[in-house]
Design a protein that fits this description.
There is one protein chain. This protein is mainly alpha-helical. The chain has one domain. It has 14 helices and no strands. The longest helix is centred in the last third of the chain and has 26 residues. The radius of gyration is 20 Å and the shape is globular.
């Protein structure tokens, strides 16, 4: 008996990839709602997220037969561990941002990370810069100044925004480190990074606030499990699968669904407020970063 092998056309592969990344980005955009009202300290929540996601990705790696890649690429393990340690602090800062300010402001300040990557690539990696990148960098930075400068004096808002910016700095660092290991399978790299998250955050939680899992309500555990299993483990797998079917530009553009969904959740589901100037500043950040991702090809005259 023969097994029929299904080969998808390029158009179908592209459609599957788009659906996958849209599902992932819509889900990522809702994470703030699950974190914001959870009573756990940010570091403990981040630790549980890492543990659950690590277990989920372990299943995917064994099922897909990628365990051999870990041994093959062992020379990069220290870079994976370093970026994983940075991710651990990144999660703590981002969750702190959600708890101190609105999801909208936390998300907008966090999305300043691509602009930081542009600056760091120029200063650290000596990459060339185009006029478009300079303009996008200046516009995005102006948007950040607007977002921070019109908080109305609210200490919590200011703290939340700076937690978001701190998370953005660390996320930019992870992007730069991952650039040097882009030839390694993304799922394997992330699996090692999640292991580093656990190793780094476990002693930190023990030495600081300790564990509070025994005082959680069922709805709080649901939030933790949903973030760990769905937002992180499952969606990271779907996201990485989409990257094999999409170009870098297609993936980058569709990733802006994430902040749009986060803004929707903040305004319409949680009833959080944001000033017009803050919203305008946030749109400058997202718009400038979005335009920077575009690679417009010149139109060519077609001959009949």
């Amino acid at each position: 008996m023969f097994t029929k092998c299904t080969v998808h056309s390029p158009a179908k592969e592209l459609l599957i990839g788009r659906i996958q990344i849209i599902v992932a980005m819509v889900t990522f955009g809702t994470i703030g709602a699950f974190v914001k009202n959870n009573p756990l300290p940010p570091a403990e929540f981040a630790l549980y997220r890492g543990i659950i996601a690590f277990l989920v990705l372990t299943i995917f790696i064994f099922v897909s037969g990628k365990t051999g890649i870990i041994v093959k690429e062992r020379r990069y393990l220290w870079r994976f561990f370093l970026s994983g340690a940075i991710i651990a602090v990144n999660w703590v800062l981002l969750f702190s941002a959600y708890q101190h300010t609105t999801i909208a402001l936390a998300t907008l300040s966090y999305y300043f990370a691509p602009t930081m990557v542009i600056g760091a690539s120029i200063l650290l990696l000596r990459e060339s810069i185009t006029l478009k990148q300079i303009i996008c960098f200046l516009i995005s930075t102006s948007g950040l100044v607007l977002t921070i400068g019109v908080t109305g004096g609210g200490t919590d808002d200011i703290s939340g925004i700076f937690f978001g910016i701190g998370a953005a700095v660390l996320y930019a660092a992870v992007i730069l480190i991952n650039k040097s290991t882009k030839q390694v399978d993304s799922m394997v790299r992330t699996w090692v990074q999640f292991a580093a998250v656990i190793i780094v955050l476990t002693p930190y939680v023990i030495m600081t606030d300790g564990f509070h899992s025994d005082s959680l309500a069922i709805k709080d555990w649901f939030s933790i499990l949903f973030v760990g299993i769905v937002h992180t483990g499952l969606m990271y797998y779907i996201y990485f699968s989409s990257l094999t079917r999409l170009s870098g530009q297609q993936a980058a553009i569709l990733s802006y669904i994430d902040p749009v969904v986060a803004l929707f959740v903040s305004f319409f589901l949680l009833g959080e407020s944001i000033s017009i100037l803050q919203l305008f500043g946030g749109l400058l950040i997202l718009g400038a970063t979005f335009v920077n991702e575009l690679r417009i090809k010149p139109l060519k005259r077609q001959l009949n």
